[in-house]
């Protein structure tokens, strides 16, 4: 009886995947970059509005196939928002309760979306408290802690099966420079960067993987020092990326290089991007694109041509009261105008 429920749950998730189209690859036009093309893979068009839709699907399938989620299991996740939104969607789909453990500072629009999909939010004061609190909540309810930060890199089939890396390279096939010079990705769990890095090596592409990291995250320092025990006293101000501890899914060895990006640069870049494409993107997209533009600047200085690809992780409509509020930005981030001026002058 339980086996038939699991089969039915997997069938529902698979059917949802079959109904979904691939996400668009947007080419940025009108930049001052001769011979260098920049592309954004727009993950905001998933049913739950972010890149994390792919991860949540994989995590649910992984948990179901490993016997961790059954008909009466409460699913618990530690998340700053987007993964929780997507997991709430899949939990409702298969009919199990869902609880998101998240910081109180999480964007209100994400909280509303989690509740819309039938999930419940359990708040902590700081991102550093999420993991332990999620374990506690799951144990109290005899539930399943989905633990995206541990299982993200292993739940996704990095060799293909329409993962995000395969999708990017397939969509690039008809472009002037079909094999990207560099793919740029920020790390939240580290699962997407691991998938992309592994896929590049598996297929033998001459492509570099650059991972960008925001302030108040230990990923960059851990990459440089190879110290998996690093911790920080506070969480990232760029929702969805950066962590105060080194997570199990963060894989150093598939990354070619990393850079640290100031939060003011990330915010400035999404404001600059809105003027280029007429759409708002989340702050993690700003971190990604700032990294792309640094690569482009270096390529141009060396006289190189080619393509660079990154991700639009989610829509900026979720952050109207934070990253798109001048008052909030001035208070929590600082002056972003110098970075906007740099972007306008250079690109």
Distance from first to last alpha carbon: 60 Å
Q: In which order are the strands of the major sheet placed?
A: 1-2-10-7-8-9
**Tally of separate domains:** 2
Question: Which class best fits the helix and strand makeup?
Answer: alpha/beta
Strand content: 5-15%
Q: How large is the count of helical segments?
A: 13
Quote the CATH topology of the largest domain.
Rossmann fold
Radius of gyration: 19 Å
* CATH architecture name of the largest domain: 3-Layer(aba) Sandwich
Number of E strands: 10
Helix content: 40-55%
Mean pLDDT level: 94
**Low-pLDDT regions:** none
The oligomeric state of the chains shown is single chain
List the helices and strands and how they pair.
Blueprint: H1 2-19, E1 25-27, E2 36-42, H2 52-65, E3 75-78, H3 82-94, E4 98-103, H4 108-116, E5 120-124, H5 130-140, E6 144-145, H6 148-155, H7 164-171, E7 182-186, H8 191-203, E8 208-213, H9 219-225, E9 257-260, H10 263-277, H11 283-301, E10 306-312, H12 326-332, H13 337-346
Parallel strand pairs: 2-10, 3-4, 3-6, 4-5, 7-8, 7-10, 8-9
Antiparallel strand pairs: 1-2
Helix pairs in contact: 1-2, 2-3, 2-6, 3-4, 6-8, 10-11, 10-13
Report on the structure:
The chain is of the alpha/beta class and 347 residues long. It folds into 2 domains: 226 residues, Rossmann fold (3-Layer(aba) Sandwich), CATH 3.40.50; 100 residues, Rossmann fold (3-Layer(aba) Sandwich). The chain is built from 13 helices and 10 strands. It has a 6-stranded mixed β-sheet with strand order 1-2-10-7-8-9, with helices on both faces. A 4-stranded parallel β-sheet has the order 5-4-3-6, sandwiched between helices. The protein is globular, with a radius of gyration of 19 Å. It starts with a helix and ends with a helix. The mean pLDDT is 94.
């Amino acid at each position: 009886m339980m086996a038939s429920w699991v089969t039915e749950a997997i069938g529902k998730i698979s059917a949802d995947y079959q109904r979904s189209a691939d996400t668009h690859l947007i080419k940025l036009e009108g930049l001052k970059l001769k011979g260098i093309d920049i592309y954004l893979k727009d993950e905001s068009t998933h049913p739950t509005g972010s890149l994390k839709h792919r991860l949540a699907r994989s995590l649910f399938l992984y948990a179901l196939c490993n016997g961790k989620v059954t008909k009466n299991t409460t699913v618990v996740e530690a998340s700053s928002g987007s993964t929780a939104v997507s997991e709430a969607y899949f939990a409702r789909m298969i009919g199990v309760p869902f609880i998101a453990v998240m910081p109180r500072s999480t964007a209100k629009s994400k909280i509303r979306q989690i509740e819309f999909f039938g999930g419940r939010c359990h708040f902590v004061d700081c991102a550093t408290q999420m993991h332990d609190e999620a374990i506690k909540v799951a144990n109290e309810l005899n539930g399943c802690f989905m633990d995206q930060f541990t299982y993200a890199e292993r739940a996704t089939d990095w060799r293909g099966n329409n993962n995000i890396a395969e999708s990017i390279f397939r969509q690039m096939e008809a472009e002037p420079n079909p094999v990207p010079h560099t793919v740029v990705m920020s790390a939240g769990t580290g699962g997407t960067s691991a998938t992309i890095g592994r896929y590049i090596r598996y297929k033998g592409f001459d492509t570099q993987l650059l991972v960008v990291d925001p302030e108040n995250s230990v990923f960059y320092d851990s990459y440089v020092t190879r110290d998996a025990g690093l911790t920080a006293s506070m969480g990232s101000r760029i929702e969805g990326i950066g962590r105060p501890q080194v997570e199990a899914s963060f894989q150093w060895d598939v990354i070619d290089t990393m850079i640290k990006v100031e939060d003011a640069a990330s915010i400035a870049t999404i404001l600059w991007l809105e003027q280029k494409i007429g759409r708002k993107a989340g702050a993690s997209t700003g971190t990604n694109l700032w990294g792309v533009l640094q690569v482009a600047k270096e390529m141009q200085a060396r006289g190189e041509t080619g393509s660079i690809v990154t991700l639009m992780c989610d829509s900026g409509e979720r952050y109207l009261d934070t990253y798109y509020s001048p008052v909030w930005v001035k208070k929590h981030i600082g002056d972003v105008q110098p970075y906007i001026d740099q972007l306008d002058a250079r690109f």
